[in-house]
Every structure is written in structure tokens, then in C-alpha cells.
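Q: How do we represent a protein-ligand complex in a form that can be generated cell by cell?
A: Start from the inputs.
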Amino acid sequence: MPELLPQRQNPDSLMLTGFWYRALPADQVHRTSLYKATLLDIPLVIGRDRLGQPFALRDSCPHRGMPLHCGRFDGENLECGYHGWQFDVHDGQCELIPSLTADQNLKVDRIYAGSYACEEQDGFIWVFIPDPAPPGAGFAPRTEAPDAAPQLEKFSENYKLAYLQAEMPVSTDHGIIGLMDPAHGPFVHQAWWWRSRHSIHEKQKNFEPIPNGFRMSAHTPSSNSAPYKLLRLYADADSITTTIDFVLPNLRTETIRAGRYWFSSLTTVTPISRNHCRIDVVAAWNLFRWVPFVPSLMKFVFAKFVEQDRRTMELQAEGLKHNPHLMLIDDADRPAKWYFQLKAAHLEAKRTGAQMKHPMQGPVTLKWRS
Ligand code: FES
Ligand SMILES: [Fe+2]
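Then emit the C-alpha cells for the protein with fe (ii) ion bound:
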């Protein structure tokens, strides 16, 4: 029996710890310089050592809270600008307290600046944000990440890689449900070269549960968009398939395959603070690598989309200021419901220590018009 009245739902704006997050584009982080970044309301200082190895520290000196990005960095140790304490940038361990006299035996190496596991992957510096540190942080080494930072899937040796970013004044939850929302397309992403709002028609897509998320099963992309028609022609492939996955906390991967050509993207919506997020799209492809202008054209098209979403969310933030009740309707908002259910199930599993109970029992077909 279908629900007649949509349920009222409010996102909880909880930011999930215990995951990797994209902090900064790798090409913006140069050796022996310091950069500020914020993830989940945590101030960070990010940099690269002399050898190019990235690091991430809490942007706060464990002595008296001076922001460490104001200090001096020689490519190895970071010296706080207030009293000159020095820290190893990779593990945060204190190396020197200049005010100590020879007979004062304070155990300097027991002191740590907050430090985070940090990796460079597909053009971004990723930082692992652990669950809130136990009391006594400041005297504890960092929590190591249980796994490597997420990676883009690639299907051949040679490919191009590009990224796009946009900051949005809404919570990560709104950013994420906006990203997986099929119904806004005809209204937000209109353009003569893409599709018109009159091309709206009924669609049916199959979804299935995957660990920590869900998948829109491999399907032939919507035939009403010009770029896909072009792609089919170019790739000379009978079939083009698209697979879209969403996995907690914020990862959306899209893979398009047409014969020996492929396009792969990993989009993340990163919590900067409770009411502020950033969308980063990183794409890799082996299509059109030799055709002049096409990569820049593709970037232009993507940038247009992201800008349309950003602008929409900026406007939405106006409305959200007054804490309205929100609705999620079937079937168009079902992915958003799954997202909230996954998040709740994840938190519940963490609380109880039991295995996470996936909100989907099996494959589901959703229908909507877009
Ligand atoms: S505040 Fe950093 S050394 Fe004192
Ligand atoms: Fe969109």
C-alpha cells in the first residue's frame, strides 16, 4: 500500500567520524609551505615535507593553542610561532621545547600535536578523521586509519584526470541528498545542448544493496541526452553502461563503459562544518584523449552542472535558515531515505558493536519522472 502522505524528515546534520575525507587538491599544496583546511569543524594545517610527502596536523599547538599554520616549517619540523616548540609533521611528536634548561627533565617526546593519517590519491590530499580522540589527547600518538583512502577505479593504463570543486552553505546531508536526487534534473540542469524540460518522462531504475551503500545497477543511460548519443557514435559500441554507487560517508562513484572506452568519477561531499560542505568531483577517462578540445569541453559541461547545483543549494540555504520541516517522497526521494537509514544503521552498529543492519533487504526498482 503506497504511502499517501509523505513523511516529515529532518536531517540530523551529524558528521561521521572514522572515515577518510578529501581536504585539499594536491596541486595546491606545495613543498615546505603550510595550508589551512577545515574538516568536520576541525581546524587543520596541511603541508608537504621536503620530499613531497603530505601531512595533516590539528591547527592548534598542544601548549597553548596557537594556530600551527602561523609557525615556521623547514620541510621537516614545524616550529610553533609562540614559544618555539617543535613538532615532527608526520606524527606530531614534540621534538624540542626551547625554554627547558639542561636539568629540567620534562619528557618532551611524550607530547604530541594532534596528527592525522594523510594520503595523496587521485589528485587530492585525503585526511582520516578518527572517532573523537580519547581524553588525554596531547599526550597520545595518532589513530592510524584502518584502510587506505578511497580510489577512483581506472580501466586502462593511460587516462586523463581532472577535478572540480564547489563550496555550498548547506549541511553535508543536504549536499548528499541533492547529489543523489533524480527529480531536480529537468528544473535545475536545463540547457539546450543537454536536454529541455519538456523531455521529462517516466524512468525506471534498479537498485541493489552493497556494503555501506547502494548501487544503481548497470543500465543504459538516458537516451534523451545528446552527449550520450554522441558517445555511442564515437565509441562505436552497441552498449553503453552506467553504474552509480553511493557508499557512506559521502562517496558517489559513477562508471560509464562503452567498448574499450571508459569514464570514471568519484564525487565526495565533504563536511567542512555543520552548515557548510564542499563538493569535489574527480573524473578520469580514456575517451576523447586525442580529440582536441573535448576534455576542456567535458570539464566545461561538468562545471556548468556543479555550478547549477551550487547555486540551487545557495538558494536552498536561504529557506533552511528558518528550520522548515522537510519531506521525502516515494520513489524520487527513496535514495535520500536510504542515505539517512544507512547513516542511522552505521551509528547504531557503532554504538552497540553489532554488525550494521543494511536498510535494504534486496534489489528494488524505483520509478519516477525526470
Ligand atoms: S603555544 Fe605553541 S609553543 Fe606555546
Ligand atoms: Fe544536480
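The longest helix spans residues 294-320. The domain at 19-129 is CATH 2.102.10.10 (Rieske Iron-sulfur Protein).
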